[in-house]
Each structure stands twice: as C-alpha cells, then as structure tokens.
C-alpha cells in the first residue's frame, strides 16, 4: 500500500516540475507563430533603387530585412565606386543573412544579421553584371527563407 502511494507522489511531483517548462514552450511558440504570421502577411512591395554616389564618391544604400523579404529588393550600382550597403534586420526573433555569389560581376559576399541587428557591407564593384542575393536561413524542416521569397537582385552598370 505504501509503495503504491510513493509511486503516485513521484509521478505527481514530476508533472508539477514539467508545467513551467510547458508554459514557457507554449508562450515562446505563440510569440514565434504570431511574429511569423503577422509579418508574413504584410505585402512585400518590389522596389528598385538606382544608387548614386554621394559627395564622397561612396554609393550608400540600406536594405531592410523582414520575414521574408528585402526592401528594396533590386539595387543598381555603378562600376568603380565603393559601395556601402547597410543591412537592417527588423525581425526581432528571426536571424537573416545576405548571400551573394556572382561570378559574372565578381561579387562574393555572405553575412549573417541577428534578429534586430544590423551589418555594414563594403565592396567596390570592378565590373558590370547582375547578381542574385538571398537568405539561406531555414528552420528545421520548414521552407528556407529564400523559398518563401527572400531574394533580390543587384545590377552593376
Ligand atoms: Cu532570412
């Protein structure tokens, strides 16, 4: 009789210890789903920006990263002037990156931007061409961010 009681008590105690963990998982999962569903439902307008050099000769542009888009998603730069590209990740919980590997324009860039963070890319295009940039982040078995539309284009003229 006492063995049965002790066993019952152990199971009850283990269940009690699991409850805060289950609540935490449910809350975090809820926040994640809310962010993904709300942000994903926003229309991502395709936008082209032709970047002109500033008075110091630097071609400056900012790309805003959200789940799952870049704004603008099409940038045009000139050959020969240095580029300063600022990447701002506005997804607070989702890390994104910027991958650009283009043999044609000789551009090879890969940078991670943490949720809510920013990064600055500096390079000087040496020849004309067109390159596709994208985010290759992927959570578990879900579609990659690129498959969800997180992709853009850079033209060097
Ligand atoms: Cu991403």
What is the strand and helix layout of this fold?
Layout: H1 2-41, E1 48-50, E2 59-66, E3 69-71, E4 74-77, E5 83-89, E6 96-102, E7 107-113, E8 118-123, E9 129-134, E10 151-156
Parallel strand pairs: 1-4, 2-5, 4-10
Antiparallel strand pairs: 2-3, 5-8, 6-7, 6-9, 9-10
What does this structure look like?
This protein has 157 residues and is α/β, with parallel strands linked by helices. The chain folds into two domains: 1-41; 48-156, Immunoglobulin-like (Sandwich). Helix content is 25%, strand content 36%. The chain is built from one helix and ten strands; from the N terminus they run αββββββββββ. The protein has one helix spanning 2-41; strands spanning 48-50, 59-66, 69-71, 74-77, 83-89, 96-102, 107-113, 118-123, 129-134, 151-156. The strands form two sheets. A six-stranded mixed β-sheet has the order 1-4-10-9-6-7, with no helix packed on it. A four-stranded mixed β-sheet has the order 3-2-5-8, with no helix packed on it. β2 (59-66) and β3 form a beta hairpin. 20% of the residues are buried. The model has no long low-confidence stretch (mean pLDDT 84).
Going by CATH, the architecture of the largest domain would be Sandwich
Q: Tally of extended strands? A: 10
Helix amount, in percent? 25-40%
Please work out how many helical segments DSSP would assign: 1
Q: CATH H level of the largest domain: which superfamily?
A: Cupredoxins -  blue copper proteins
What is the spatial order of strands in the main beta sheet? 1-4-10-9-6-7
Q: How many whole angstroms does the radius of gyration measure?
A: 23 Å
Low-confidence stretches: none
**Structural class determined from secondary elements:** alpha/beta
Strand content: 35-45%
Summarize the biggest pleated sheet: 6 strands, mixed
Q: List the ligand species.
A: copper (II) ion
Mean pLDDT: 84
Shape: elongated
- The overall number of domains is 2
Helix-strand sequence: HEEEEEEEEEE
CATH topology of the largest domain: Immunoglobulin-like
């Amino acid at each position: 009789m006492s063995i049965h009681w002790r066993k019952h008590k152990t199971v009850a105690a283990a269940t009690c210890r699991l409850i805060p963990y289950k609540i935490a998982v449910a809350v975090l999962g809820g926040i994640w789903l809310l962010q993904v569903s709300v942000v994903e439902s926003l229309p991502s307008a395709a936008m082209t920006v032709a970047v002109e050099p500033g008075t110091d000769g630097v071609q400056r542009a900012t790309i805003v990263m959200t789940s799952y888009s870049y704004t603008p998603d099409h940038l045009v730069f000139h050959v020969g002037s240095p580029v300063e590209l600022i990447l701002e990740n506005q997804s607070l919980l989702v890390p994104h990156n910027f991958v650009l590997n283009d043999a044609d324009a000789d551009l090879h860039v890969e940078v991670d931007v943490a949720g809510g963070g920013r990064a600055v890319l500096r390079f000087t295009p040496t020849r004309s061409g067109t390159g596709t940039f994208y985010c290759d982040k992927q959570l578990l078995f879900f579609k990659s961010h690129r498959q969800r539309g997180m992709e853009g284009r850079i033209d060097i003229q």
